[in-house]
Amino acid sequence: MNITIVGTGYVGLVTGTTLAELGNNVYCVDIDTTKVKKMQQGIVPIYEPGLEEMFLRNINSGRLFFTTDLKEAVDKSEIIYLALPTPPGEDGSADLSYVLGVANQIGEIITDYKIIVNKSTVPVGTADKVREVISAKTSIPFDVVSNPEFLREGFAVKDSMNPARVIVGSSSENAKNIMAKIYQPFTNTGVPIIFMDEKSSELTKYASNSFLAVKITFMNEIANFCEKVGADVDKVRLGMGSDDRIGNRFLFPGIGYGGSCFPKDVKALIKSGKEENTIFQILEATEAVNSTQKTILVSDIENYFGGDLTGKKIALWGLAFKANTDDIREASSLDNIRILLDKGAKITTYDLVAEENVRKILGDSIEYAKDMYSALENADALLIATEWSEFKNPDFGLMTKKMNNKAIFDGRNIFALEQVEGTGFYYKSIGRKIIH
Questions:
Q1: Residue 371 CB: number of other CB atoms within 10 A?
Q2: What pTM was computed for the model?
Q3: What is the pLDDT of residues 143-163, one digit of tens each?
Q4: Which of 220, 316, 213 is nearest to 259 (CA)?
Q5: Cα 328-101-137 angle, rounded to 5 deg
Q6: On the CB side of 312, how many CA atoms lie within 13 Å of its CA?
Q7: 376-404 mean pLDDT
Q8: Residue 426 in contact with residue 406, Cβ under 8 Å?
Q9: Annotated catalytic sites, by residue?
């Protein structure tokens, strides 16, 4: 099939590349001329493991194209995916201006039947709004479909090629049949495709992400309680996760969730609820707890140094909100850096993947090391904010030589307690005993 993807951000680029990999001709549209030229040259604009190989393969196979010309792409395609940003407003509501703006353009340019697929994460009722906008501009028949994505940053290629399920929201039998053909390579291997109405599909995405945010936050509260009563959150987590009603995923405690999805989607669902006179008390509590959790180690660092961080050099390993991505949106690292700087500390960071994005925000207010050990030069403490694999088995002897003071504050519990015992380091993690 011939498919257009409008928007080449994280979701759009991964979706477009995946659909090309499935044998379709895919035209990716973006208004950023420089970005489009780079993609035409085979340059991937985001960091995502495994994406570049698939991206280049489909460009070279003549199935993946990039353009700034929306009309040209739409004219060539039967299906148009909208993978546009829906950033949160000050009140938490999802900004639909990009989605509805492109819908308006599509209404002006279509000349034959099209299926418009909402891939963006959007509030309940957005399909109706898209339909209204397009209908106001044309009498050409079309259908609107909700087809939410469930991609984990850092695992997006794996998730896109091996989805747990495909959700399709549509009231059109013709649209359902065509969407079923697009995803037939998945359904042929046993992946379920679940058809429902558009509103249920839209809510499924918000409900899924919000539930996972609640699960993470609950585990963080359990971890904090473990510290109070002397329990070990690692053992509690294993005991809970062995119950198949609960499952063992998203039970790892840490310094809060971040990224482009969970914070935004929780806020948007809370806002949507209020518009319908519904208070999501659990989600409001989740948001409040997560906000506190993100910087929970700052007070521990401050207490360790007797309440005064003036002039203390803090090394920070990890800037991305999670490993295997360059995404720093809502990253805990940024919250910690700002507070530590306000308290007079000096910060040296290491994260080669996310460094460029942080530089755009923090500039020269912090230092950027070329490797993980260089960041430790004359450091008074180490704060770990991202669970990159290279951090998980360090040379503690070399760390001792580099640092002025042997103190580690681990916001991601990347070390087993047994790794640190006997090294002479003070080690504070989340929900476990402190090693002195």
A1: 10
A2: 0.93
A3: 999 999 999 999 999 999 999
A4: 213
A5: 160
A6: 27
A7: 98
A8: yes
A9: 261
